[in-house]
Amino acid sequence: MDNKLCMGGEEMTKLVYRLIQVEAGGIGEPREFQDGEVSHQIQTVIDHWIEMGEWWNGEGNKQLWRVWTHQGGLFDLECSADARWFIYRVWD
């Protein structure tokens, strides 16, 4: 997937779709994630939703989590149907 900048009002986001390692809590919510050498502790889960995958390609539903980290970053994280985690979007 190409990196693109999206504008929605004054916010800008960068689509990333990069594989990450996630430590999840009891109901599957992310608590911490590792992006390369950088560890991000999640301070707040802002939102959680489910999107339908590309069912025509055999893809299942995916869960998305909008999180705020202790470092002050806003991220959308995706957990695929096969339990792989990705940074989907970074908010500026």
Features:
92 residues; single chain; 7 strands; mainly beta; globular; six-stranded antiparallel beta barrel
Please provide a written account of the structure.
The protein is built from no helices and seven strands. It has one domain (16-91). It has 92 residues and is mainly beta. It has a six-stranded antiparallel beta barrel with strand order 2-3-4-5-6-7. It has strands at residues 5-8, 11-24, 30-35, 38-51, 62-69, 74-79, 85-91.
Q: From the alpha-carbon coordinates, what is the Rg to the nearest angstrom?
A: 13 Å
* Strands, total number: 7
What structural class do you assign from the helix and strand content? mainly beta
Determine the number of helices (DSSP H or I, runs of at least 4 residues): 0
List low-pLDDT spans: 1-7
Helix content: under 10%
**Succession of helices and strands:** EEEEEEE
The main pleated sheet reads as: 6 strands, antiparallel, barrel
Global shape: globular
* Content of β-strand: over 45%
Q: Distance N terminus to C terminus?
A: 19 Å
- Tally of individual domains: 1
Strand order of the largest sheet: 2-3-4-5-6-7
List the helices and strands and how they pair.
Blueprint: E1 5-8, E2 11-24, E3 30-35, E4 38-51, E5 62-69, E6 74-79, E7 85-91
Antiparallel strand pairs: 1-2, 2-3, 2-7, 3-4, 4-5, 5-6, 6-7
